[in-house]
Amino acid sequence: MITVVVGLQWGDEGKGKIVDTLISTGWVVRYQGGANAGHTVYKNGTKFVFHQLPSGILNPEIKNGIAAGCVVDPEILIEEIESITQKGINISNRFFIDSRVPLVLKFHKLIDKAIDKKRGIGVTGRGIGPTQADRARRWALRMEDLFLKENDLKDKLNDTVEFYNFILNNYYKEKQEIKIEDILSTLGKFKSYLTEENIIDLSTIIQNAIDNKQKILFESAQGSLLDINFGTYPFVTSSHPISGGIYTGVGLPPQKFDRVIGVMKAYTTRVGSGPFPSRVPEKIESFIVDIGMEYGATTGRKRRCGWLDLELLKKTIRLNGVTEIALTKLDVLSGLNEIKILIEKENEYKYKIFKGWNK
Length: 359
Ligand code: IMP
Ligand code: MG
Description:
The protein is built from 10 helices and 15 strands. By secondary structure, the chain is an alpha/beta fold.
């Protein structure tokens, strides 16, 4: 059984909770994104926010994978591994990263923020765009490189560090100087948390797991409207959160997914810049932000809130091949006397209005 969980809006639809309730054995595999994501899961009254770890990590019966389409920030992953280990969760033999995953390093985060000061996409500052750019221009440092001899690793990093220092200092006028020793020290620490057993050819392992009829859940981060091709470009993330991203993100031949669960909130939210057609008036937004706790899990930014937008949902449902919908946070709206749903936007915005429904 292959299950896919995708977000149908701009992220933060509640995918983490849905993944957590859906699966009790087998695999949870993240196929794109990095520490820009924020998955909040409550387990026995304790709140967990994961940026890098897949949402199945709290369940000891589940194996968790970070596939090649993702990027990994060693510093954040170390923090998350430490934090869950302290809470008594054991990850040995159940946490794997594809050896092809590019690493997010300090200079990626610095340049991400410097670029955004000029471009105003409203990024999370987690170095996603620059790391994906390094992957595309074929000079990314990948998980497999952690096992190089220190001198070879240094050689591999030299030009990159030189390049980023040059751009940061000369074009963006940032004073910070990246030292290769600092990067090597982060990587050394990271290596002490992982072994060659954790860093594997996840693509083959998942192909085999599918052949052996194991349960697999592919977990998306962000939302379909942030997809780099099909989202609201350029106000998007640098990966493919849509279900099609699984084939190249995990390394699988095209095949039918048994269930594609599209997660959507009963209203719409968006963190960061970009168009947002169905935005609610200020007073209602404050109400929704308060009751729905609509603050970005990664950056703490207040999310913009809007009415449910059916025009956009029709598009993302088709794009993902959604077979089922998981509707979240309907209860947040119960304090409002009137709610609206955007049903058409061809010539003008048309809303269906529901009044006095909560009396
Ligand atoms: P980046 O992914 O940090 O490059 O940010 C690009 C855009 O995607 C910004 O508008 C971010 O706010 C948004 N974004 C990235 N990750 C998430 C997420 O997990 N939830 C909601 N929005 C996100
Ligand atoms: Mg989130």
